[in-house]
Specification:
globular, binds fe (ii) ion, about 0% strand, single chain, about 230 residues
Length: about 230
């Protein structure tokens, strides 16, 4: 890939090397909604020396195994990207939401009286889940077909205001994930009350990781490609 410097944006790095998403997760650096920031500015905002992040990226690059399993999306066409997002992220969300909802029910029922963080966690998760259900419905019914049409050269197929709206909703999703993480004590399984609670924390951490990647692939890969196709058609 191109040389990474302190001026490279986080989105560029994750788009070219999707496996680095895990590294940014570890540093708590936002690569989806805040991905347009440079490595230096994103690191400093987290109180981390940018050189520390660059060194970690070098180490990461040295381990080619780190890329195993990561999906390379930057080379995909709009059609392929949409297929990938629906299959890998939307379908997965449709499985995760009821499964986590059920785990939350059980944990709140058994431990809710003794742990005041559990009920607000359930409430926040339900709120975020219902927003996400509406969000992915808008993507699949309206925006993604319009992205495909724009890529096929159709004029006026895509209303750019809808992309702005979805991008704004992604920021709300990001804020919701931060709230879930706080309410869950950073998903620290050592503080779990039981095995179900442990599995719940693990599942919420997976949910967060997958959503970060999902939003990144839309904000930083699909939407720019769709906007480009739109500009080329007009
Ligand atoms: Fe989506
Ligand atoms: Fe989205």
């Amino acid at each position: 890939m191109n040389t990474i410097s302190q001026d490279t944006t986080i989105a560029e790095i994750v788009t070219e090397r999707p496996a680095t998403a895990a590294l940014f997760e570890r540093f708590g650096i936002d690569f989806c909604c805040g991905g347009q920031r440079s490595l230096a500015s994103a690191s400093e905002a987290k109180g981390i020396d940018p050189q520390t992040v660059l060194d970690a990226l070098d180490e990461f690059a040295a381990s080619r195994a780190a890329d195993a399993g990561a999906h390379e999306v930057s080379a995909l066409s709009v059609d392929q990207l949409v297929d990938h997002i629906v299959k890998q992220h939307h379908d997965k969300l449709r499985e995760q939401i009821p499964a986590i909802g059920e785990l939350l029910e059980r944990v709140v029922r058994v431990h809710g009286a003794g742990d005041a963080t559990l009920a607000p966690l359930q409430e926040k998760f339900n709120e975020l889940s219902s927003e996400l259900a509406t969000h992915i419905e808008l993507e699949e019914s309206t925006v993604f077909p319009a992205c495909r049409a724009a890529a096929a050269g159709g004029e006026d197929a895509l209303d750019p205001a809808l992309l702005d709206q979805l991008t704004h909703e992604h920021e709300e999703t990001g804020a919701g994930l931060v709230a879930l993480r706080e309410l869950s004590g950073d998903y620290d399984q050592a503080k779990a009350h039981c095995n179900t609670h442990r599995f719940l924390l693990q599942s919420l951490a997976d949910f967060e990781r997958d959503l970060h990647l999902h939003v990144h692939e839309e904000n930083n890969v699909l939407f720019p490609q769709a906007r480009q196709a739109l500009a080329a058609a007009s």
